[in-house]
Amino acid sequence: MFFIKLTLMIELKLYDNNTSIRTIPKKYHILFWIGYFSFNVIRWGSYFDDYWYSLKSNLVEFPLHIILVYLNLYFFIPKFLLAKKYKRYISLVFVSLCLLYIVRTLLNYVLVTENIWPEAEGYQEAFTFNHIIAVTLGELYVLALATAIKLTVDWVNQRKRIENLKKEHLKSELNFLKTQIQPHFFFNTLNNLYALTLEKSDLASSVVLKLSDIMQYVIYDIKEPNVSLLKEIEYIQNYIDLELLRCNKNANIDLKIHGDISQAKVPPLLFLPYIENCFKHGNKNSNDFYIYISFKINPQNELVFNLKNSFNPSFEVNDKKGIGNANTKRRLDLIFKNRYQLDISREENIFSVNLNIPLTKKEYSEN
Fold first, then answer.
1. What 3-state class would DSSP assign to 290?
2. I want to staple 356 with a disulfide (CB 3.0 to 4.6 A). Which of 80, 141, 156, 341 is the partner?
3. Which spans are transmembrane here (predicted)?
């Protein structure tokens, strides 16, 4: 149909200069105009009991509707209304309505009927005040309807874009935080390995093997936002084993798992900074040095992480960088928002961490 081809030509012309405005696929534009055209033909055909007249008059008028609507949506609004040139916008719409009235009236008179306003009672002439008002209100109705639809769709799309940007920003920040955690850990481990090589210790080969397992986990296994809790615990155990190679052999490390955690998934590298602090700030050479670690799923389907360790009260807990704890707190805020509980306390020479996180996958996805 003529007005459909005209729609496509207008859209393509407008999109040539700015493809970013193509927020609604062309097929929906076509469906809208077909639906609106069909509705008008049937409505006015039923009103006049003359569907042939209704078809002809709408074929004349609809290309004009389309031209006015797309000029308003893709030229007048972006160039003038959004630029706060309100007087120019109103003037252009007014001039467009005047020109449209003249063209529409002449085309109807030449191509459709000499009775220019059959809806009114009696014979009506063109270019009268009442006829101008009636035609103008009809055009404003079409203009307002199409503009309202377009602006609503743009608003919805803008909301989606903002949400997607937030998700991408969240994902980027979380990835950045993870990249900070990994060098921090490897720096400490390589220091341990260096100390053992200086001592020419036979334990150096065991450290290399443990470090290899850890690197495999960090490089290959934690690309996803959530990992198996069992894998994370295995990673923690490897880290503890590395630390124990150079600690007091009498150190008491107790790692307990309560309940079935085989299906549980957690954000990777979430617990290690707290365990690192146990060795960093604990009195590792003391016979009283101990670390208690517990993972448990409570009835509310939350993972409860509990950590206690002895530490040297004379040692300043706040290290000069504070990368580990700061990153972990930031990640918890980003992933869980207010849906987690973290309690950190010190009492005499006992340091405690209690962390509850939900085990609903949707809630801790970093995507």
1. strand
2. 341
3. 30-47, 59-77, 89-112, 132-153
